[in-house]
Amino acid sequence: MNNILEVKTTSPDYKGQDPEVAALDFRNRIRNYEKAYETIDDNEKSFTYVKLINVGSTVIINQIKDYLSSRLVYYIQNLHIKPRSIWLSRHGESEYNLTGKIGGDSNISERGEAYARALPGLLKKSGVPPNTKIVIWTSTLKRTIQTARHLAAETGFEKLEWKALDELDSGVCDGLTYEQIAQKYPEDFAARDEDKYNYRYRGGESYRDVVIRLEPIIMELERSENVIIVTHQAVLRCIYAYFLNTPQEQSPWMEVPLHTLIKLTPRAYGTDEQRFKADIPAVSTWRAKGTSAKHQEYPTEIKA
Ligand code: F6P
Description:
With 304 residues, the chain is of the alpha/beta class. It has two domains: 2-65, no CATH class; 86-297, Rossmann fold (3-Layer(aba) Sandwich), CATH 3.40.50.1240. The chain is built from eleven helices and ten strands. The chain has helices at 2-10, 19-36, 67-78, 95-99, 110-125, 142-155, 178-184, 186-194, 207-213, 215-223, 233-244; strands at residues 49-53, 58-62, 86-90, 135-138, 159-161, 227-231, 260-267, 270-277, 283-284, 296-297. Helix 6 links the parallel strand 4 and strand 5. Helix 1 (2-10) crosses helix 2, helix 5 packs across helix 6 and helix 7 crosses helix 8. The longest helix has 18 residues, at 19-36. Bound molecules: 6-O-phosphono-beta-D-fructofuranose.
């Protein structure tokens, strides 16, 4: 029934149609599937299959043997179709952001603190139905914990710190600015621009590594209902790309401004996205391919 309701409002097949006509048509479509599909039953012992009955209340698996298949079973077992949203925010502007340094574990700046104070109001403004419980996830780094502090105190929401949400490890480049990296490690700097998704910092991580370490986060997110995640630029790009299906070559270059709350609402046919900007200035930490520009001050109006 939930599926039919979603179809009425969100399926591209029924865009612009009367919702009742769409629901009726969809019911007929199911009847047609029933005519054509064959049920795999207990006699088909040699087939590899997963049966999900009533959105995972019962799960039947057969001949699941290899690593990837068992991960897939675990994944689909965790899926649910209850309406919910996931909010993503970077930490408030940090002291390292102000000086253009990457990595580290610095405190948030004064403007970052202003964002931390504004976050509960911003979340409210984004539309939270009454009595909604939201769980707050942060990384283990100071800047995300400081950013979520007021939100946790004002709402009383449960708060979890995840090591897996820590920023991409920039190895030997930790604590340097992009300009310094370009001077000290010119070949690495160019190699990263060439293939940012796969480039692994010396002694550190690549975006691909981050995606792999985010697997438990994605599994837990799929099992959970409403969650607000306060994390870092690279990690946020990876989580965002998972929900919005952004290609690997694009995801490491996406602009995810500071002091902006992103609300994602997964639907049957994609994810709805809304952005809410706090009216608190911050530097831009976005770097275009081929440049080593220092972190820039946004124009007076913060760009989306
Ligand atoms: O500059 C902020 C920051 O979070 C750094 O700590 C991190 O290395 C960087 O962003 C990741 O962004 P990019 O992959 O574009 O360098």
